[in-house]
From TrEMBL, chains A, B:
Family annotation (InterPro entries): Gfo/Idh/MocA-like_OxRdtase_N (IPR000683), NAD(P)-bd_dom_sf (IPR036291)
Chain ranges of the Gfo/Idh/MocA-like oxidoreductase N-terminal domain: 2-114
Signal sequence interval, chain numbering: none
GO molecular function, one term: nucleotide binding
Protein name: Oxidoreductase
Length: 333, 333
């Protein structure tokens, strides 16, 4: 059993806890929060006996195999680094890091700790319906790109409009639509089509200087991929992947509930998807557990390489729009 | 009755003929084609007694009030100019002209012929369902822009793939996705949101150097509008216009069959549209006839001003993608 400790106490952590409970690999052991009471309250919410820590060093020194991190983006780098250096495997929420400098540093730490794994929790790429899309794309005789959309009005945007500044809408916490929902779309594009030749992101900026919404265009040698992401508007658009007259449709490019293929205009679509699990994090938790238990270095390296590429594309998109995070400035020192 | 003559013999002309037959204003009188037999065959197809011309000067000198032009885009400028100089009102298919230089020249011709009208046949903006969208947008307390899509696999694209070069896929005839279907979307955006501050078009270019597909981003002070257009892929995406949690949905941003408003996520959409006419050109034919018969200079000027703005935006989009038409080069001499 892998003893797992959690950093971050939010709805995502709860979903992750529910996911690992369905898998034999994991034993939920400890919880860290800067405020001990918060950690304890969270423990009560998930109704489990846990060791509670408000001291990160003590938490990382405890008897844990894996650390799951679901904190604001700008905190990931230091927390992942500390956890790896403490000899733990790490699962970190997407986007793992703010920029390629951070990613490079972490890669060096990984190299210094052979046999330890770091996973970016891009849950959707591990789901069967994502794999169905991947398979269908591979069967096209040529690619004509895609229009992928993930734009949902944030539950925190009303507060933002009233003058509050939730973390997700700040540069300080490396927020914005691209980082929060766009990362799903970038994972899609890089998984299916590889690293683009050129990228351009055009955002609508909010008063905090981050992107409330934006359109990214990824240019490949023979086609383009358009990404629509946003947290200040509500979109019901499906996503589409093209090959001439053939159109592959995903109900949502971050959630993958239904995938259909329309072979020609006017022809009845074929359903390629299966009923998704209620908890979309089960498949990633299973995949990470498999890799750790089987020491599957090759599978780890494929995921790690994808994570590095996504990090580069996300960064280049963000910088093409002139959005600079504090961590970028630090990196230049 | 307005005696009307036709230049151009294609499916659009047939649809236009069917439209004007439903309106009392017009009397279809003559038909011009470079090949007389083609004109006569077309006359037979529309089952009407017409005067046939293969000499443009004689056609324009004949007893006509209005000329309708539906030829390849690159021919519009010279044909419109000749028709206006011959003292006729003109209805020309969209896009009217290849660039702002041509538009400027035509505006000078119009000024020299007071009382004569030129209409760009942007049929959709005259339809009741377009007006329903316009009205709903005006009722939003603020605008968050839109994602508008019109991408249909062209009936001529198979031939293009086999090595043929239909006019619509050439620079010589001022073709490409933006000019052919994108013009509907640009009309939408400029009608609803005005002239953008900045525009950027990223296309997938075909072997002839024109755009098979592309994404345009129009930047306004407080929001952005994204346009997806293409003739080499088949999209089933609806179009959306945003205001916070409210989403206005159009089944197709060039065809306007159904318009709905969703006031908040999860709420039942309200239908704002009516059943469209079978022939979508009836409303424009009616509008142009109204203006001519009533000498409605103010209404003409509003449409003319919109046409000038659309011409500028289309040109700036095309040039932002580095697509140069022969007429642009001529204009620099």
């Amino acid at each position: 059993m892998l003893k797992i400790g959690l950093i971050g106490t939010n709805w995502l952590t709860k979903q992750f806890v529910a996911a690992i409970r369905t898998i034999d690999y994991y034993q939920l052991t400890a919880l860290y929060s800067r405020k001990l009471t918060r950690a304890q309250e969270f423990g009560v919410e998930i109704e489990q006996e846990l060791a509670y820590f408000d001291d990160l060093t003590a938490f990382l020194a405890s008897d844990l195999d894996v650390i799951y991190i679901a904190t604001p983006n700008s905190l990931h780098f230091q927390q992942v680094k500390s956890a790896l250096e403490a000899g733990k495997h790490v699962i970190v929420e997407k986007p793992a890091f703010d920029n390629p400098q951070q990613m490079q540093t972490i890669q060096e730490v990984l190299q210094a700790h052979p046999g330890q794994y770091l996973f970016e929790a891009a849950r959707h790429i591990h789901e069967p319906n994502f794999q169905a899309v991947t398979q269908a794309i591979a069967e096209f005789d040529h690619q004509d790109g895609a229009v992928l959309t993930y734009m949902k009005y944030s539950s925190k945007f009303d507060a933002f409009l009233k003058g509050d500044t939730p973390n997700i809408f700040t540069k300080e916490f490396a927020g914005g639509a691209l980082q929060d929902l766009g990362v799903y779309l970038v994972y899609d594009a890089v998984s299916w089509f590889g690293v683009p030749e050129k990228v351009q992101y055009t955002p609508t900026l909010l008063r905090t200087g981050i992107d409330g919404r934006g359109t990214a265009v990824l240019t490949y040698p023979d086609f383009q991929v358009t990404l629509n992401t946003g947290k200040n508007v509500q979109s019901h658009l499906v996503s589409e992947i093209y090959s001439g007259k053939q159109t592959l449709t995903i109900d949502n490019a971050g959630e993958f509930n239904q995938v259909t293929l329309t072979k020609a205009p006017g022809v009845q679509p074929i359903v390629l998807s299966q009923q998704p699990d209620t908890n979309p994090m089960i498949h990633e938790a299973q995949a990470f557990g498999d890799i750790i238990n089987n020491h599957d270095q090759a599978r780890f390296e494929r995921l790690n390489s994808l994570s590095i590429n996504v990090n580069h594309v996300l960064y280049n998109l963000r910088r093409s729009a002139g959005i600079v995070f504090p961590a970028d400035e630090d990196g230049r020192k």
